[in-house]
Amino acid sequence: MSILASRLSAIKPSPTIAVTQKAADLKAAGRDVIGLGAGEPDFDTPDHVKAAAKAAMDRGETKYTPVAGTLVLRKAIVEKFHRENGLTYTPEQITVGCGGKQVIYNAIMATVDAGDEVIIPAPYWVSYPDITLLAGGTPVFVECGEADGFKLTPAALEKAITPKTKWLILNSPSNPTGAAYSADDLRALADVLLKHPHVWVMTDDMYEHLVYDGFRFATIAQVEPKLIDRTLTMNGVSKSFAMTGWRVGYAGGPLSLIKAINMVQSQSSTHTSSISQAAAAAALSQPMDFFPAWREAFRARRDLVVRMLNAAKGLTCLTPEGAFYVYPSCAGVMGKKAPSGRTISSDSDFVTELLEAEGVAAVQGEAFGLSPYFRISYATSEQALTEACTRIQRFCASLS
């Protein structure tokens, strides 16, 4: 009898974390590697947020908190949802977890039974299907191609819904593509969902503030209030406040669902760090004066990367509306030979050969459910991005 549970055979380690670790290992071995795999802002957590954490420690706020999160933080989240998204929740309708990933995990574990289906538009964030599989559910992938801007269409959603569908997961702006759903896009999807009252919606709005060129962010319960009683609106402080290591995610939803999520959390982490919660409350309650400069820096990096990738032989790259990722196609280099002599037959081959030949670490599109593409995170300096894209151009030119 194996000590390992059989359900682990259905999942795999996070590919994005694996690429980041491989790049770190190569750097430690002396290789000149530029890592473009991690979805993590290179800015520091704002000073006023760090000061709030220090003040909380000085006040002795180092004890257990309620499972759902401190009342101070949950009130700050309620205000944030009302102020920025036009959504009305009470503090009892808010849950706080150890990052957005735990909130999603708790929600799926609390609701999905064996055989339940979860609609996941592809490309997708790598954890959605594996969390579904761990719960015994069935991921239903809906391919959202480049022609549709990597976004789910109403017709494709309608076709994917069955009597077994429990959730639709919507991520906007998207990891890995940066594609974002406009209010009109969401309105069209909401019209489909209104016809299927058994389908719940989980929105992953983690990149809400990272939108460019005048794009206006919207979330589906804001666009269609009739869906709020079957929508879990998830967000967090990781990306917009450069707080990935603080591990604070949160969500608002119907009271019965939030109670179930908190029950799951009560038997796992109990709650996230009391100090992190104090920092998150400060982040959500105070003006984001620092953010316009961050957003402009990300926009400039996006434009740089898109321009240089489109100049690389065999690559094409759309300009995304948000987040800090691009998802270029490498279809034009399939079948060519790398300097190693190996033939590039997949996007996995492409990123492997790119890393070996030029020391640039990216993530294969296969990990996100749509090939032949690869993901680049531009959450790093323009200098590093310029050098990385120069190497990518050189690598593509070397293919025969």
Distance between the termini: 50 Å
Question: Can you count the helices?
Answer: 13
Low-confidence segments: none
Oligomer: single chain
Strand numbers in spatial order across the main sheet: 2-8-7-6-5-3-4
Q: Helicity range of the residues?
A: 25-40%
Strand pairing plus helix content: what structural class?
alpha/beta
Beta-strand content bin: 5-15%
How would you characterize the largest beta sheet?
7 strands, mixed
What best-fitting shape do the alpha-carbon axes yield? globular
Task: Compute the average pLDDT.
Answer: 96
Q: Explain this structure to me?
A:
39% of the residues lie in helices and 12% in strands. It has 400 residues and is α/β, with parallel strands linked by helices. The protein has a seven-stranded mixed beta sheet with strand order 2-8-7-6-5-3-4, sandwiched between helices. The protein has a three-stranded antiparallel beta sheet with strand order 9-12-11. Strands 1-10 form a two-stranded parallel ribbon. Helix 4 packs parallel to helix 5 and helix 11 runs parallel beside helix 13 (382-398). 50% of the residues are buried. The mean pLDDT is 96.
